[in-house]
Design goal:
The chain is an alpha/beta fold and 193 residues long. 22% of the residues lie in helices and 19% in strands. The chain is built from five helices and ten strands. It has helices at residues 49-54, 64-69, 135-151, 163-166, 180-189; strands spanning 15-16, 22-24, 32-38, 78-80, 86-88, 94-96, 104-106, 111-113, 120-126, 160-162. The protein is globular. The termini are close together.
């Protein structure tokens, strides 16, 4: 990678909006990339509700759904907006609160793992289960994943999964609208990392 990066886990291709919803990782193991989808209000894109949600500033009177979720203290490392803009909420060296109750089969360690926030990076895509993601989002996601794989040697294309895969009874994101084959092909052919 030729571009100079700031110290720690802040990506200089992302706009920073610091979330208070993070803490220290128990180890330096960063070996899973977890993809999510979010739209606030549900099914609506644009606006500042996602940033407000991840910074505990969601205005409950702006939409009935906001009153249901405003008490939650959650975050992700990155958000990729519909136009491809990247917003970073948490330093990737720190633990963001994105996975919730989840589990994942780690083929490298040959065991089921829980507490996925401890060793994963969470990327939210602005979207839902049914609306196709944009080319700009795939472009940004490939760049972000390549940066992460260069930064964390344990992370590779086989250690990228969805929230739906790690919490199958409670989550569906990023949903059937996400084109895994296209993303993996783009990432595999990317020469950045």
């Amino acid at each position: 990678m030729n571009e100079k990066q700031p110290p720690g886990g802040w990506w200089n291709s992302a706009r920073q909006v610091v979330s208070p919803n993070f803490d220290a990782r128990p180890t330096h193991d960063v070996s899973l990339l977890l993809l999510h989808a979010i739209s606030l209000p549900p099914g609506e894109f644009s606006g500042d509700a996602i940033e407000a949600f991840f910074t505990n500033q969601l205005a409950v009177d702006e939409h009935p759904f906001f009153a249901e979720i405003a008490h939650l203290r959650v975050s992700a490392h990155l958000l990729i907006r519909r136009d491809g803009e990247c917003v970073q909420f948490v330093d990737t060296d720190q633990r963001a609160w994105h996975a919730g109750r989840s589990y994942w089969w780690d083929a490298h360690h040959v065991k089921w793992r829980t507490a996925l926030n401890d060793f994963s990076v969470g990327i939210e895509l602005e979207g839902d289960d049914i609306t196709p993601y944009t080319r700009a989002q795939y472009d940004a996601l490939v760049k972000a994943a390549a940066w992460l794989m260069a930064k964390y040697p344990q992370l590779n294309i086989n250690r990228i999964t969805s929230h739906a895969q790690v919490a199958p009874l409670r989550k569906t994101d990023p949903g059937p609208a996400f084109d895994w084959a296209y993303f993996r092909q783009r990432l595999a052919s990317n020469a950045v990392y």
